[in-house]
């Protein structure tokens, strides 16, 4: 049985400053590109059954630089639609909403391009991805290149937990790996935030 390797895209100017970049297509920084290239030796030689990526350029470019050629764009791997919080930092959001917590309080609607999503909607997208991936793991490893909050939801759903448990995982650093595996039919987290 193969492993599911989850890759958070490399650094962007927005990830560096803590801005919520859901659907805004922010490119990688030079450091983000270097981190993506540094993943290539760690990923080389694996028996890939499939490689999927968010369709945003920061994820597709990370896949390319990490040596994951032919990554299939999957719209279900887009980051959480942050709605009216798109482009804001957590500190800015808390100025108008003291004590705000994304996992508990969610987002507010934004404009037509950023209507916002509730956590159950993000979880439903992730569940659909996992339903497509699980059968492929009998053929080898599967790589997913995606975004910070989405990878947390994907990980807890892999573990069979409610999406609200995503807050229990530390935020994955840009350009890092998570290893999701099974043992005796039980899913487990084999590695998190691995450079």
Structural account:
The protein has 195 residues and is an alpha/beta fold. It is built from 7 helices and 6 strands; from the N terminus they run E-H-H-E-H-E-H-H-H-E-H-E-E. The protein has helices spanning 13-17, 30-43, 57-65, 90-96, 102-105, 119-133, 148-158, and strands at 4-8, 48-53, 72-73, 141-146, 177-183, 186-194. The chain has a 6-stranded mixed sheet. Helix 2 packs across helix 3 (57-65) and helix 6 (119-133) packs across helix 7. The chain is globular and about 50 Å long. The two termini are 23 Å apart. The mean pLDDT is 97.
Provide a brief overview of the structure.
By secondary structure, this protein is of the alpha/beta class.
């Amino acid at each position: 049985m193969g492993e599911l390797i989850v890759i958070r895209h490399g650094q962007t100017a927005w990830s560096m400053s803590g801005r919520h970049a859901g659907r805004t297509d922010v490119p990688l920084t030079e450091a983000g590109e270097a981190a993506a290239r540094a993943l290539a030796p760690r990923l080389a030689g694996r028996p890939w059954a499939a490689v999927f990526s968010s369709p945003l350029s920061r994820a597709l470019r990370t896949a390319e630089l990490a040596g994951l050629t032919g990554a299939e764009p999957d719209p279900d791997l887009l980051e959480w639609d942050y709605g009216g919080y798109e482009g804001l930092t957590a500190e800015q959001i808390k100025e108008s909403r003291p004590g705000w917590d994304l996992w508990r309080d969610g987002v507010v609607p934004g404009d037509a391009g950023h209507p916002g999503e509730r956590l159950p909607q993000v979880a439903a997208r992730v569940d659909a991805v996992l339903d497509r991936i699980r059968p492929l793991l009998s053929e080898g490893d599967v790589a997913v290149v995606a975004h910070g909050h989405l990878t947390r939801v994907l990980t807890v759903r892999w573990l069979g937990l409610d999406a609200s448990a995503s807050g229990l995982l530390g935020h994955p650093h840009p350009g890092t790996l998570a290893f999701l595996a099974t043992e005796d039919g039980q899913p487990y987290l084999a590695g998190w935030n691995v450079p």
